[in-house]
Specification:
Number of strands: 10
CATH class: Mainly Beta
Helix content: under 10%
Order of helices and strands: EEEEEEEEEE
Shape: globular
Strand order of the largest sheet: 4-10-9-6-7
Strand content: over 45%
Largest sheet: 5 strands, mixed
Oligomer: single chain
Number of domains: 1
CATH architecture: Sandwich
Structural class: mainly beta
Mean pLDDT: 97
Low-confidence stretches: none
Length: 107
């Protein structure tokens, strides 16, 4: 089975594909959260989808290309100050199966 690592941060160093300000808790003034996903062991080329949820409500879906067997990709979500509480991102494969779920909190 594929190995999926999911992490969140306030920004992304695109050149090195690493998060800046990685955390599991953010202030309501954060403005944007990045979700960085490392995928190992998926047959490529294929896609994964980041499905963003706030307090259980679907907020966004972003389809992302997977170009090799060890791949890092990301999406980001604008966060309004009123959107405090629990957030979750589900990583789905091309068929819609959940590969990983990870979350963070906005306070």
């Amino acid at each position: 089975p594929p190995v999926i690592e999911v992490a969140f941060g306030m920004d992304l160093d695109r050149e090195n594909r690493v998060l800046v300000g990685q955390a599991e808790e953010f202030g309501s003034d954060v403005e944007r959260i990045f979700c960085l996903t490392r995928i190992r062991g998926l047959v490529s080329p294929t896609t994964v989808t980041h499905a963003w949820y706030h307090e259980g409500q679907a907020m966004a879906r972003v389809e992302l290309k997977v170009g090799s067997a060890d791949w890092r990709t990301w999406s980001s979500k604008k966060i309004l100050p009123a959107w405090t509480g629990h957030w979750e991102v589900k990583v789905l494969d091309a068929s819609g199966k959940v590969l990983a779920t990870s979350g963070f909190t906005v306070k």
